[in-house]
């Protein structure tokens, strides 16, 4: 039976939904397991073999990668392996509205590389150079100090240092046009562009030029990794942004539609109903009108 770890099994304060620890392996392996949390893994020393979703890849000092919720993984063939494990809840520490989604490296590190890891045999992992390792060590030391001391306001400091770490990693994530990085680069670049410019007019041909792929290759890549097309991905983001505006602003439905990039408010309303099973006006009324007792 595969072990599944929960926050309460790892975190001294499970409601914090965050934990940071150093894992030192000399001879003992870490058996395959699942967890309900996401995890940033930084290989600080040594080497070993990472078992991930049925396949195995060598890892060494300087590697940094993400293991998402409910992904089966473990370690063996260990040689002085020392890991820093940063455990977190993405809904809290990487919320959907974060500005980091405008950076290609964010999508590459947290979404695309993990999705394509098995196909690319872990070849697209982020391997830090000496300068980058020193910077990451420094940020992690400050993050761990706040976590261990737990002074008043430490929750805010954890969020701040975690954001600094993620921002640094996403800025530094390598961008290569050659295989096997080309797919990771193309998809993350297009996703970041959509996040940054969703309120503007975006055509499929614009995204194709940005990706350096053919139109058919880009569509296939989106379908394979995200289960949708580039334009459907764009429209889905616009609809989510529109939903937030309907709840948090006094803009009219037409103004909301134009604000998120729809040129036709009637088309917007039809698409909104298809996604949320209510018209924009009905959605706003249902979610903002106080319920009667």
What is the fold's blueprint, element by element?
Elements: E1 3-5, H1 7-10, E2 18-25, E3 30-35, E4 38-52, E5 55-60, E6 63-67, E7 73-88, H2 90-93, H3 104-120, E8 126-127, H4 130-149, H5 154-172, H6 181-197, H7 204-211, H8 215-226, H9 230-248, H10 253-259, H11 265-276, H12 280-288
Parallel strand pairs: 1-3
Antiparallel strand pairs: 2-7, 3-7, 4-5, 4-6, 4-7, 6-8
Helix pairs in contact: 3-5, 3-6, 4-5, 6-7, 10-11
Could you please describe the fold and organization of this structure?
30% of the residues are buried. It is globular and about 65 Å long. The chain is 51% helix and 21% strand. The chain is of the alpha+beta class and 293 residues long. The model has no long low-confidence stretch (mean pLDDT 93). Helix 4 runs antiparallel to helix 5. It has two domains: 170 residues, Sandwich (Jelly Rolls), CATH 2.60.120; 47 residues, Orthogonal Bundle (Arc Repressor Mutant, subunit A). The chain is built from twelve helices and eight strands. The N and C termini lie far apart (48 Å).
- The rough form would be described as globular
What fraction of the residues are assigned to beta strands by DSSP?
15-25%
Per CATH, the class of the largest domain reads Mainly Beta
List low-confidence stretches.
Answer: none
Number of helices: 12
Mean pLDDT: 93
Share of helix among residues?
A: 40-55%
Superfamily (CATH H level) name of the largest domain: Regulatory protein AraC
Second-tier CATH architecture of the largest domain: Sandwich
CATH-defined topology of the largest domain: Jelly Rolls
Following the backbone from N to C, one meets helices and strands in this order, namely: EHEEEEEEHHEHHHHHHHHH
CA-based gyration radius: 21 Å
Count of domain modules: 2
- Given helix and strand content, the structural type is alpha+beta
Count every beta strand, where a strand is a DSSP E run of 2 or more residues.
Answer: 8
The rounded distance between the terminal residues' Cα atoms is: 48 Å
* Main sheet makeup: 8 strands, mixed
